[in-house]
Amino acid sequence: MSNKLEILREYQKASSKLDQLKTEEADKIKSTSVNTSSTQVITPQFGNEMTHLNEECMQLNMILEAMDASED
To answer: Looking at the predicted structure, is the pLDDT value of residue 18 above 70?
Structure first.
C-alpha cells in the first residue's frame, strides 16, 4: 500500500506544479498590454514543462486507477 501512497504523492506534486505554471502563464498573459489594433501573439513560456507534467499526471493517474481497480 505504501507504493500507492508514494505514487499519489508524486501525482499531487506534479499536479500542483502544473497548476502553478498554468497560473503563472495566465498571469503573464493578463499583464501584457493589449493593443486592440494589432494581433497579440501568445508564446508559451512554460509549454514544454507543462506538456511534460501533464503527461506525467496522466500516467500516474492511470496507474492509480489500475491499482484501485485491482483492489475491487
So the answer is: yes
- Determine the distance from the C-alpha atom of residue 65 to the mean position of all C-alpha atoms in its chain, rounded to a whole number: 18
How far is 9 from 23, CA to CA, in rounded Å?
Answer: 21
pTM (2 d.p.): 0.77
- Give the residue with greater pLDDT, 44 vs 33: 44
Cβ-Cβ contacts under 8 Å for 60 (sequence gap 6 or more) = 7, 10, 11, 14
pLDDT at 2: 62
For residue 31, count other CB atoms closer than 10 A to its CB.
7
**Helix, strand counts (H, E) of the chain:** 2, 0
Is the Cα torsion angle 68, 4, 19, 41 positive or negative in sign?
negative
Residue reference for cell 493593443: 35
